[in-house]
């Protein structure tokens, strides 16, 4: 694979990711249809291979969201 092929593949992946983000935000938050499901599955496979850490069963986990703070 030469540099232009890898650049094209990277651009395609970013376009897929952008389209997927818009679908999740505006259309279907919980159910992902093909071809995006395969795309997410491939990303998850890479992440599972690269990041293997264990969180204790009794660990406290927190969910945070980024919001604009408006002062009145």
SSE topology sketch:
Elements (H helix, E strand, L loop, with lengths): L2 H24 L9 H15 L22
Question: How would you describe the overall organization of this protein?
Answer:
There is one protein chain. The protein is mainly α and 72 residues long. The protein has two helices and no strands. It is extended. The mean pLDDT is 84.
Strand content: under 5%
SSE topology string? HH
The gyration radius over C-alpha positions equals 17 Å
In whole angstroms, the N-to-C terminal distance is 56 Å
The major β-sheet equals: none
Arithmetic mean of pLDDT: 84
Count of helix runs: 2
Note poorly predicted spans: none
Topology, number of strands: 0
**Share of helix among residues?**
40-55%
Class inferred from helices and paired strands: mainly alpha
Shape: extended
């Amino acid at each position: 694979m030469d540099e232009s092929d890898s650049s094209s593949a990277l651009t395609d992946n970013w376009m897929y990711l952008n389209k997927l983000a818009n679908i999740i935000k505006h259309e279907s938050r919980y159910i992902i249809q093909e071809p995006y499901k395969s795309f997410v599955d491939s990303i998850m496979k890479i992440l599972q291979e690269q990041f293997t850490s264990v969180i204790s069963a009794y660990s406290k986990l927190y969910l945070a969201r980024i919001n604009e703070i408006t002062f009145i």
